[in-house]
């Protein structure tokens, strides 16, 4: 683990670049495509940072780099000893397993002990509003239900840095309002949150600081 140069910085990105290999057809040669180009910024403990950018600007890629899921091709990401977890709609759950089992696995992947996760399962069930669906495989869930499960797990089993990829833009209005209210509580706590959203107004409402990717 590196020594933290300034106490409040938890993660630091320096000139981070990501290139994907892409093919425009099966007989075409793969070409490299720059998804992120020389991105530098620091993430501070306890802040709620919003990331804005048009479609394809590299927002999801940026979150994956911060989470350590993909390694930068250029530059570096320094993590000063914090746990990070990425919550995205497409990722994370095993669709054959139940909501309960997925909640337990997600929590354990974040570093919680099984008992700690189990102690919070009732709260997760209650907040998600999934009721009996918690006993059913996630493949039977709608995308809104998946997001409710993901959001509820993340709220009750928080890592040091929580990355949310468009998670507040799906689901029904009632749940979105409840989720936003819960987010506001996190904003006033020690939790560090990074939020990607297409909605500029949502970012302005919830975040202390915004970074735009172009
Ligand atoms: N695994 C991959 N292989 C090749 N290209 C990719 C891969 N993942 C993303 N890309 C491309 O990289 C660019 C950035 O993608 P990314 O998903 O990070 O953007 P985004 O800002 O999150 O987009 P959106 O707002 O549409 O979700 C896009 O042009 C995308 O097509």
TrEMBL record:
> According to its record, what are the GO cellular component terms?
membrane
| Keywords, in A-Z order | ATP-binding, Nucleotide-binding, Transport
Entry-linked InterPro entries: AAA+_ATPase (IPR003593), ABC_transporter-like_ATP-bd (IPR003439), ABC_transporter-like_CS (IPR017871), ABC_transpr_TagH-like (IPR015860), Bact_Polysacc_Export_ATP-bd (IPR050683), P-loop_NTPase (IPR027417)
Record's superkingdom? Bacteria
Q: Which Pfam family, an example, fits this chain?
A: ABC_tran
The record's section on PROSITE patterns has: ABC_TRANSPORTER_1, ABC_TRANSPORTER_2
Name of protein: ABC transporter
Per the UniProt record, the source organism is Microbulbifer thermotolerans
